[in-house]
Amino acid sequence: MIRLDGVSKRYPDGTVAVHELSLDVAKGELVVLVGPSGCGKTTTMKMVNRLVEPTGGRIFVDGADVTHTDPVKLRRGIGYVIQNVGLFPHRSIVDNVAVVPELSGWSKARRRERAHELLELVGLPPDTYARRYPHELSGGQRQRVGVARALAVDPPVLLMDEPFSAVDPVVRGQLQDEFLRLQEDVRKTILFVTHDIEEAVRLGDRIAVFAQGGRLEQFDTPASILGAPATPFVADFVGFDRGLKRLSVTPVTEADLDHPPVVRADDTLRSAAATMGTSRWAVVLDSKGGLAGWISQDTATGDGVVSDHARRMEAWVELGDSLKVAFAEMLQWNAGWIAVLGDDDRYLGVLTPSTLHAALRRSVEADNRSIEPSQVDLVTVSDA
Ligand SMILES: Nc1ncnc2c1ncn2[C@@H]1O[C@H](COP(=O)(O)OP(=O)(O)OP(=O)(O)O)[C@@H](O)[C@H]1O
Fold it and tell me: Which CATH code is given to the segment(s) 2-249?
């Protein structure tokens, strides 16, 4: 959908901002450009909507060479969101959102209807917000208006230049979550600039890491960037804690699970004790195979059934959730293990701190060697 083919930009003073950059963004994909200050991210983005003209190479949007497209027409088909939004202070929120529809000659009623629909979509109920002015909104709310405005004429492509940088970290996290939900719905093709690797990992389908002079160091999925940095520059940029960051992009798979003894809520305590053997505890399932809780071996004695002594288990995740979510659940519930559930809440197994660690190591090792995680044979210090 967006293709950069050997694109360069040398400013008149001789600064090379971008050097022979080739990059493609598939339809519906979100590609994040990340790198230190001054490495050419913004210049790259501005060349796509012709706010800056390249000095070499070609750029295509939906197959058309942008240098052959009228810039005004081009920009109407590309939503643009910038850091401090740039809302018009003397226009109401509804009129700010409707700027491009107005330029495109939509009727007043149609503009208003579209603006209300978009405000709803970005979580700003129009009854409350439509008639306000920008100074009557919080920073996070203004950013949402910026996103709504960029979506106004439903452009297939969005360019977003540090859109969430001006707000505090908590609001930023909320905006990122909302934005990901929105993107699930609207599936735009997005180029997103940030200098924050955490934001890149959280949002990007793929990440392009730039070094000074607009040189592309690596263009890959977040998991691969974190697991197998292509150059020392990338390794340094993503940080020594990249293993930890990778938790958020590594999903829990069935191969990661441990399988402690399992008993049923209506089993007798005697049969449960026999099932447990030497294990100190067992998972308790209900009659449908769902998670009911757990029981410790020292309470599985005497007459009665498992449900008399079973305890609820609050810590669980779904297959496919990230290892980070699993780890956070473990910490939140102060649990030594958490259950993993599949479709229809079916119990599949458990994750413990050591299986979680192994899962992470396996996925990093798999990326380093370009094989599947299940093919990795882990050797630990104590085995060696
Ligand atoms: N109009 C200009 N004239 C000359 N040099 C420029 C111009 N605009 C940008 N540059 C230079 O081009 C390089 C890349 O700038 P650019 O704004 O693209 O970087 P960036 O990666 O977006 O940086 P930041 O994260 O700080 O916003 C920098 O060295 C910058 O000083």
Answer: 3.40.50.300
